[in-house]
């Protein structure tokens, strides 16, 4: 642990006797390092030493207190300055405090004690400010996109880049991607990185709410608005006011609900069901869908005008099977996360297990991989995860069974997978090597040996 630096105080006082008195008094605290200057110029020359607090005598011979305060403020706007003056005129004190002095003390028999307290107060404030800064940095780091969303594939890096831009602008954002690709995580991360981060983030899944309840869920209702409305209900839009509203599965909205949503977005205000009051809205909208909304517009299942309102900055999340190196990267991440939570050692991934993981098609995407890895960690022998510990969902493993039902060797599986990828990616060896997280030379060697 590093030793904390002493708290450095500079006293500017042309009367040597009085200056030494204050210096002696403050030096009684061993944490303080007190320096005495006798002129304003001396202080200005030494400002680069970055003291923690400065006291200045208002009546210095070389520079008036006001002028010195102004010049120090110009160079170090955050530096706390205590003015000590022989005159007790309230107007001067007020003027100096307005100019940014932290405190104004009159020279009398209590000065040294008042100064002691004033310095204590400043030290406490600066300690708290530092703490707040540290916490803010920690919070910021916590919500750095790549801390929340794991992945190192070029595809996810492109997503991070778009998310960064989305966080910096107030426009609506639309996230598309198959189920379990991390759409909600993207929405939350953009909110937490945006200037609305301290306001609410409210998520609603359109597909999970019965159509007849959706309007009141989104916009709220007044007491007695319909049978069963026993009290006033605040809707999700109002809950999210000032912050971000995440509308998941927006492609599932019925056409009448689309019309109502469009009106609220256009007017930036809403009326609760059964109410007259118009409530102003300041909400950033992030929408998500696994559907191709443009296609839905063509099919007239989604309103074109609403489409242009919500599309904003589009972020597309690729399916896991197209994220190459992310499969093993995420598998290891979820394994480590789970084992750390459970307080158990992290088992290794057998080579055959890695091949098996790469061969799977993940219709449930990242969510599915997470579940598979957590189950595998629980089922394995504690040291190594073997293929038998991987339980793929019945609905999805069928596609892979054809490959696995034959009594193939691991080398044959690898050949099969590499050949499949070479076909898929136009025999681009560097690309395939990257996708499968294997060396290019492994592929070239297999080609040379006539195995591919
Ligand atoms: N890149 C990632 N890094 C870490 N965890 C991830 C990542 N992507 C998704 N997850 C995890 O996968 C699960 C599914 O993510 P999320 O709910 O955001 O997906 P979704 O696309 O919104 O799913 P759905 O379409 O089914 O609503 C969550 O547990 C989430 O934490």
UniProtKB/TrEMBL annotation:
CDD domains from the UniProt entry: AAA
Keywords: ATP-binding, DNA-binding, Nucleotide-binding, Phosphoprotein, Plasmid, Transcription, Transcription regulation
Keyword Nucleotide-binding part of the UniProt annotation: yes
GO terms under biological process: phosphorelay signal transduction system; regulation of DNA-templated transcription
Domain Sigma-54 factor interaction residues, every copy: 149-378
GO molecular function, one term: DNA binding
InterPro entries reported for this sequence: AAA+_ATPase (IPR003593), AAA_lid_NorR (IPR058031), CheY-like_superfamily (IPR011006), Homeodomain-like_sf (IPR009057), P-loop_NTPase (IPR027417), Sig_transdc_resp-reg_receiver (IPR001789), Sigma_54_int (IPR002078), Sigma_54_int_dom_ATP-bd_2 (IPR025943)
Modification sites for 4-aspartylphosphate: 57
SMART domains noted in UniProt: AAA (SM00382), REC (SM00448)
One Pfam family matching this protein: Response_reg
Ranges where the Response regulatory domain occurs: 8-122
Name of this chain's protein: Uncharacterized protein
Lineage: Bacteria, Pseudomonadati, Bacteroidota, Cytophagia, Cytophagales
């Amino acid at each position: 642990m590093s030793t904390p630096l002493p708290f450095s105080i500079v006293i500017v006082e042309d009367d040597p006797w009085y200056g030494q008195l204050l210096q002696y008094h403050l030096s009684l605290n061993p944490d303080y390092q007190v320096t005495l200057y006798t002129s304003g110029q001396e202080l200005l020359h030494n400002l680069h030493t970055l003291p923690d607090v400065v006291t200045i005598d208002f009546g210095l011979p070389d520079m008036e207190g006001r002028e010195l305060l102004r010049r120090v403020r110009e160079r170090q706007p955050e530096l706390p300055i205590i003015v000590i003056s022989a005159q007790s005129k309230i107007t001067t004190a007020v003027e100096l405090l307005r100019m940014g002095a932290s405190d104004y003390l009159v020279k009398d028999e209590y000065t040294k004690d008042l100064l002691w307290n004033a310095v204590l107060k400043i030290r406490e404030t600066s300690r708290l400010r530092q703490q707040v800064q540290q916490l803010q940095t920690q919070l910021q780091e916590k919500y750095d996109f790549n801390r929340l969303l794991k992945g190192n594939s070029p595809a996810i890096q492109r997503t991070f880049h778009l998310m960064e831009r989305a966080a910096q602008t107030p426009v609506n954002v639309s996230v598309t991607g198959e189920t379990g690709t991390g759409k909600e995580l993207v929405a939350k991360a953009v909110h937490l990185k945006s200037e609305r981060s301290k306001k609410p983030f409210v998520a609603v899944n359109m597909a999970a709410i019965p159509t007849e309840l959706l309007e009141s869920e989104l916009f709220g209702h007044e007491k007695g608005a319909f049978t069963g409305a026993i009290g006033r209900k605040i809707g999700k839009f109002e809950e999210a006011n000032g912050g971000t509203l995440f509308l998941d599965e927006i492609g599932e909205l019925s056409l009448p609900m689309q019309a109502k949503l469009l009106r609220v977005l256009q007017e930036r205000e809403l009326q609760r069901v059964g109410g007259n009051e118009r409530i102003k809205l300041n909400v950033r909208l992030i929408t998500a869908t696994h559907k191709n909304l443009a296609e839905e517009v063509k099919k007239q299942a989604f309103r074109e005008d609403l489409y242009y309102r919500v599309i904003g900055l589009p972020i597309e999340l690729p399916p896991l099977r197209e994220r190459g190196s992310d499969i093993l990267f995420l598998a290891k991440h979820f394994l480590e996360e789970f084992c750390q939570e459970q307080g158990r050692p992290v088992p290794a991934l057998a080579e055959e297990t890695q091949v098996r993981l790469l061969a799977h098609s993940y219709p449930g995407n990242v969510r599915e991989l997470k579940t598979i890895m957590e189950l595998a960690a629980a089922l394995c022998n504690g040291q190594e995860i073997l293929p038998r510990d991987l339980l793929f969902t019945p609905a999805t493993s069928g596609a892979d069974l054809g490959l696995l039902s034959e009594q193939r060797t691991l080398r044959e599986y690898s050949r099969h997978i590499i050949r499949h990828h070479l076909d898929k990616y136009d025999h681009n060896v560097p690309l395939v090597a990257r996708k499968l997280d294997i060396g290019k030379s492994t592929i070239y060697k297999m080609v040379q040996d006539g195995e591919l």
